[in-house]
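Course assignment 3, question 2. Fill in each field.
Student: A.L.
Task: Predict the tertiary structure for the chain below.
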Amino acid sequence: MSVLNTIPFEKFHGTGNDFFVVDAEDPVPDRPTFARIHCDRERGIELPESTRRGADGVLFLALESQYDPPRVVMTLVQPDGSVAAMCGNGARVAAAWAADRTGSDVVMIDTPAGTRRATLDGDDVTVEMGVPSFHPRDVPLESDDELVEAEVEGLTVTAVNTGVPHAVAFVDDVDDVDLEEIAPSIRHAPRFTNGTNVTLASPDGDGGFRQRTFERGVEGETQSCGTGAVAVVAAAKRLGHISGDDPVRVSPPGGTLSVTVPDKGSALLGGPAVYEGDGEADTVFRDR
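Answer field:
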């Protein structure tokens, strides 16, 4: 392939969930191809400041600074070229990006899953994630019945939508499960009409949970998944593993997140958004 154009980008991560950030004003003729090429973990973009080549997705962000608080329109294109309706870690990155340009410590984020409010305190960002739903229409499921502690492809899961669908399984130790082996059949199970993310959780011994997630669109395990962390706490409350409205610590491989799922109102996701570096990315390609 030969390169015809380039644009600037920045790279951020939220507890290891990493993204290339592109200002939506910069033209990218084919966003799915842009994401597939540059996010590739073996052949994608490599920055000296970043620990990993490629990324878990590309955030195309359109800042609307005339509003108070400022707004940013977030579109996440995943490594397979699909668009995710919501991404908790991506939303925190979008808020940090917008705050850096406006100086505001409150940012409204417009996503395909709805508008989310974010507040910033240094590198820590807390995002309103909406109300988790177990309703079959919202997950969505092929059945009219909720899927709660039901066996799917050999794993007992609970289905919940936290902006995107998750099949959550509570296990004794997340490290004892071969996630890459078991997740694909659940991710594509007929019960999930649009597919699902697959999230494992186990108690951390101190009131919180450890988490691992196989992400739809990435088609592999990520270092962190914010919607998955919210799904863990929502499912844990539904199953009676925890109660109350206090924040719960959820620890994916990439770090620690704070999740609050109140009995009424929006869930909250808190954690860091970290700038890694910047560069220039090819935008238009053609076969030689």
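Instructor remarks: The first strand starts at residue 2 and ends at 14. The chain has two domains: 2-129+273-286, 132-264.
Grade: pending
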